C-alpha cells in the first residue's frame, strides 16, 4: 500500500485530523427512537443467557437472575425507566450483587449519555456492563431512581430489567448468537408533535449463524416496553408471523391476530407466562422459518378493516421494542475460527467542506471468540490517513472513530482490517469495506424583505351591514314609522364617523414577506429568523431545515401606525450555523406604510 507524498500534500494538509481512536457517543434523545444495533455477537460452546422481568414498579426495584454454569465471557444489564415526560429529569443507579454501578443522570430531550436510549415521551432504555460483577447461580439486582427526590420531576418507575450473558462451557452445544439493542417508538396518529406522523414498523436484520453448518434450534428473544393487553401487535420473522392467537382477541380480530406485548411475559407460544405490566419478554421458536439471511419486524398493528389506518382496536397506541436476539445452537463439534469484518458509517448531513466529521468504525466478529489485538488502516481516495489500533473482546464488537475534515467533492473511504494477517480467521476476504461519500459546501444563508402590504380590515363594514340589516328587518316586522328608521341611520352614520376619526391614530395590520435563501449545498438546520420594526423585536421564526440551494418565503403579520418605519431582519443571529459567508445574514430597509 504505497502512498504518494504529493497527493497527501494536495489533499490532506489543509484539513485538520485527529489521527487516533475516539470514543463514540452511542445514544442521544430522539422522539422516533434509535434503530437497533449489535451489542454482542459470536460463536462459542456454551449457553447464551437472557432473562428478566417483572413489570412496572417503584424504586427500590429488585430482580433475581439464575445464571447457568460456565465461564462468563461478557454480561449486560438493561433497565427500562419511565420518565413521565420527555423534559422531566432524574437519575437511575443499580446495585448488582451488592456493588453499586454508576449513577446516570437522565435528561430527557437533552440526554447525551452513552448507552442511554431515550425516545417518545420519556421512555428510557439503559445499558450497563456487568461482566466483572456477574457470577454463576443466583444474582440480585436492586435499582434506585430519583422518585420523590426534591427538585427531580422524573417519574422514575421501572418497567423491568434484563440480564444477558454468554457462558462458555466445553460440554455444552455450539451456540451462535447476535444481540441487538435500541429503542424504537412505534406509534399511531396523535402521539407525536406532528399529529399526522405514524411509525408502524421497525425491521431488525441478523448476521448470526453463518459459522454453523448444522442448526438444531433457533430462538428469537425480544423485549418490549409500554405494551398493553388487548391491543394487537405482531412480530414477523422472515415474512412469517409466529406465536399463537390470544383467545380474548380472536372473536373480534380473527385467528391471525397476535398480542405479543400483552403485559404477560413468556406466553407468546401458548404458555401461561408471568404477569409483567407494561413490560414484555418473549422467547420464540423460529427454527422452521430460518434462512441464510434473517430479519425480524416489530409491527404495531394491521389495518384489518381497510379504512387506511390502524385504530386502537387494530394495534397498539404506542410500543417500544428495545431488545432482540437470535440464538442458534448446533451439536457440531468442529472448532470455529473468528471471522472479522469492518463497517464504516458517517452522517451525510455532517459532511460539510472544512468541518471536522466523525467517521465511525465498527469491527464485527460473528465467528469464534477472539480477544486479540490488530490494526485497521483508514484510507481516503487511496491514501492512508490513519492506522487505528483494534482490541477485540469476547462480545465480538469493537467501536471507535476518526475525526476527519473533508474537502468539497466526492471521496472514497476505505477500511482495511488486520493487513498483517495476525489473526487466524475462517475467511479474510471480508476484511475490507468502502464507502463513497459526497462532501458539500457549507450552508450560506441570506435574507431579504418585501414591501409591506396593508391587510384590509372589513370587520367594521361587515358589522355595520349586519346591524343595518337587522334593524331593517326589525322595522318591517314591527311597522315602525319611517322617521324612526331615518333616526337609526343617522346614529349609524355618526358612529361610523367616530370610528373613522379613531382610525387616524389606530394601528393597521400589514403583511411582510421574508425570503430566506440557502445558497450553499449542505442543509441548514434549526436556526432562527428575527424581524425588528424600528429596533423593536416583532417576531422570531424557527426554521427546522432549509435544504441547500433552496429558498422559502414566510409572510409575517405586523401592526403599526401609518408612516415611515425601519424594518430589519436577521437570519441565524446566534450563529448556530457554520456558514461559508456570514456577511449576508442581515437585511434592512426603510418603508412607507400607507
TrEMBL record:
Every CARDB domain range: 338-433, 490-588
TM annotation in the entry: 481-497
Organism: Methanosarcina mazei S-6
Domain DUF3344, chain residue ranges per copy: 33-328
Protein name as annotated: Cell surface protein
Annotated InterPro entries: CARDB, DUF3344, Ig-like_fold
Record keywords: Membrane, Transmembrane, Transmembrane helix
Amino acid at each position: 500500500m504505497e502512498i504518494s507524498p504529493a497527493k497527501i500534500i494536495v489533499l490532506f494538509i489543509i484539513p485538520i485530523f485527529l489521527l487516533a481512536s475516539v470514543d463514540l457517543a452511542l445514544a442521544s434523545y430522539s422522539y422516533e427512537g434509535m434503530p437497533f444495533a449489535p451489542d454482542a455477537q459470536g460463536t462459542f460452546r456454551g449457553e447464551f443467557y437472557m432473562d428478566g422481568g417483572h413489570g412496572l414498579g417503584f424504586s427500590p426495584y429488585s430482580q433475581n437472575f439464575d445464571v447457568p454454569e460456565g465461564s462468563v465471557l461478557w454480561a449486560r444489564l438493561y433497565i427500562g425507566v419511565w420518565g413521565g415526560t420527555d423534559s422531566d429529569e432524574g437519575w437511575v443507579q443499580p446495585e448488582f450483587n451488592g456493588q453499586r454501578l454508576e449513577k446516570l443522570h437522565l435528561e430527557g430531550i437533552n440526554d447525551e449519555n452513552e448507552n442511554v436510549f431515550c425516545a417518545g415521551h420519556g421512555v428510557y432504555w439503559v445499558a450497563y456492563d456487568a461482566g466483572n460483577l456477574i457470577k454463576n447461580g443466583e444474582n440480585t439486582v436492586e435499582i434506585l431512581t430519583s422518585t420523590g427526590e426534591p427538585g427531580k420531576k422524573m417519574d422514575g418507575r421501572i418497567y423491568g430489567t434484563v440480564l444477558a450473558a454468554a457462558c462458555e462451557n466445553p460440554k455444552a452445544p455450539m451456540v451462535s448468537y447476535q444481540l441487538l439493542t435500541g429503542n424504537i417508538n412505534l406509534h399511531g396518529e396523535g402521539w407525536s408533535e406532528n399529529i399526522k406522523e405514524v411509525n408502524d414498523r421497525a425491521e431488525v436484520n441478523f448476521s448470526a449463524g453463518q459459522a454453523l453448518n448444522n442448526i438444531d434450534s433457533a430462538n428469537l428473544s425480544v423485549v418490549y416496553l409500554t405494551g398493553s393487553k388487548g391491543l394487537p401487535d405482531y412480530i414477523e420473522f422472515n415474512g412469517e408471523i409466529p406465536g399463537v392467537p390470544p383467545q380474548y382477541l380472536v372473536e373480534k380480530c380473527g385467528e391471525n391476530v397476535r398480542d405479543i406485548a400483552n403485559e404477560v411475559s413468556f406466553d407468546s407460544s401458548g404458555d401461561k407466562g408471568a404477569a409483567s405490566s407494561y413490560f414484555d419478554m418473549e422467547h420464540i421458536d423460529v427454527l422452521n422459518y430460518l434462512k441464510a439471511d434473517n430479519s425480524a419486524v416489530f409491527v404495531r398493528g394491521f389495518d384489518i378493516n381497510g379504512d387506511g389506518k390502524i385504530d386502537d382496536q387494530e394495534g397498539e397506541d404506542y410500543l417500544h421494542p428495545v431488545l432482540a436476539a437470535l440464538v442458534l445452537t448446533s451439536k457440531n463439534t468442529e472448532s470455529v475460527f473468528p471471522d472479522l469484518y469492518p463497517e464504516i458509517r458517517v452522517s451525510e448531513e455532517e459532511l460539510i467542506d472544512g468541518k471536522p466529521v466523525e467517521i465511525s468504525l465498527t469491527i464485527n466478529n460473528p465467528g469464534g471468540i477472539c480477544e486479540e489485538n490488530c490494526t485497521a488502516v483508514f484510507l481516503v481516495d487511496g491514501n492512508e490517513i490513519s492506522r487505528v489500533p483494534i482490541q477485540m473482546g469476547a462480545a465480538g464488537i469493537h467501536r471507535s472513530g476518526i475525526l476527519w475534515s473533508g474537502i468539497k467533492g466526492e471521496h472514497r473511504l476505505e477500511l482495511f482490517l488486520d493487513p498483517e494477517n495476525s489473526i487466524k480467521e475462517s475467511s479474510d476476504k471480508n476484511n475490507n469495506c468502502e464507502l463513497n461519500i459526497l462532501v458539500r459546501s457549507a450552508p450560506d444563508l441570506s435574507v431579504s424583505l418585501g414591501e409591506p402590504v396593508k391587510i384590509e380590515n372589513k370587520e367594521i363594514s361587515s358589522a355595520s351591514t349586519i346591524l343595518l340589516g337587522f334593524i331593517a328587518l326589525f322595522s318591517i316586522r314591527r311597522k315602525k314609522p319611517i322617521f324612526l328608521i331615518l333616526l337609526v341611520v343617522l346614529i349609524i352614520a355618526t358612529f361610523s364617523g367616530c370610528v373613522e376619526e379613531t382610525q387616524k391614530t389606530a394601528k393597521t395590520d400589514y403583511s411582510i414577506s421574508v425570503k430566506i435563501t440557502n445558497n450553499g449545498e449542505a442543509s441548514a438546520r434549526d436556526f432562527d429568523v428575527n424581524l425588528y420594526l424600528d429596533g423593536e423585536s416583532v417576531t422570531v421564526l424557527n426554521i427546522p431545515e432549509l435544504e441547500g440551494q433552496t429558498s422559502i418565503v414566510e409572510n409575517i403579520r405586523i401592526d403599526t401606525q401609518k408612516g415611515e418605519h425601519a424594518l430589519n431582519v436577521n437570519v441565524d443571529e446566534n450563529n448556530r450555523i457554520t456558514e461559508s459567508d456570514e456577511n449576508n445574514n442581515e437585511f434592512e430597509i426603510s418603508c412607507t406604510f400607507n
